Amino acid sequence: MERKRAAFAGSWYPEKANECENEIKGFLTEKKGPLKGNFKAGIVPHAGWYFSGSIACRVIASMQAEKVDVVVIFGMHMHKGSMPCVMTKGAWETPFGDLLIHNQLALKLAEKNHMKTETPSSFPRENTIELQLPFINYFFPGVSIVPVGLPPSSLAAEIGKSAVEAAKELGLNIIVIGSTDLTHYGANFGFVPAGSGEKAHEWVRNENDKKAVNAILDMDESRIIAEGSKNHNLCCAGAVAAAVAGAKQMGAVRAVKLDYATSYEKNPGDSFVGYCGILFEK
After folding, report:
1. φ, ψ of residue 277 in degrees (nearest 5)
2. Is 258 helix (H, G, I), strand (E, B) or coil?
3. What is d(CA 125, CA 240) in angstroms, rounded to the nearest whole number?
4. Within 13 Å and on the Cβ side, how many CA atoms surround 101?
5. Kind plus residue range of the DSSP H or E element containing 137
6. How far apart are the first and last CA of the chain?
7. The whole model's pTM is what?
8. 110 secondary structure, DSSP code
9. Chain segment 7-49, per-residue pLDDT in tens
10. Is 273 helix (H, G, I), strand (E, B) or coil?
11. Contact 23, 10 (CB under 8 A)
12. Cβ contacts of residue 181 below 8 Å, gap of 6+?
């Protein structure tokens, strides 16, 4: 069976299982820890674990349930005109062992939405998805995954809803994750509308990222796509819109913000990134 090698292990997150487990145990004691609730979907950041791992970890830990067959992960940095894609076979390597692709659900999703199908070798090298996999493997041992790449367009919400419908048709219990970082600010990213230093950091925290977070908390897919396009505050707006649409299709009625942070807080500089964790509850 073909497997996709972990491209970021040993750099963006630990390479060995015991090292990952130690990091995860530390993340679970930070701030609020996992939240209690009936959460079936969530939004996670995808920077290196040093910067945003605790947020992603605690979001995914909060979605633990008695039975989960498949985790559908929406991500990828795409342009509006990019073609949606899904890995339909094989496995993805993690420090805790391989995660199998749920072939039946992946193919059904691809057929319903005319998506490009990918193999482990052809699927892009994507931190948006890979950074979540050790957490998924740790909290949901034995689960399968369906990795999906989505553009920031109206297609995203349709595919998010379709993933839930396809899983229901197959009798599968799923959870849905949308992976995105928020504003990428500074000269490194070619985005400097508010100067530099602490002034810029406050603008990102209190204005630009807040607009994106509020759109997610309002569970408004169209506004999410518009925010990413207009204000450059969602690098994977399609993934977020899909997760929101999927959450609503599963009966979610409210969004809960778990945490917010920026890389500036750990590494002050003129270029930095915002991160947020959000859960959707039935």
Report:
1. -115, 130
2. strand
3. 19
4. 26
5. helix 133-139
6. 37
7. 0.97
8. H
9. 999 999 999 999 999 999 999 988 777 888 899 999 999 999 9
10. strand
11. no
12. 45, 46, 47, 52, 235, 236, 273, 274, 275
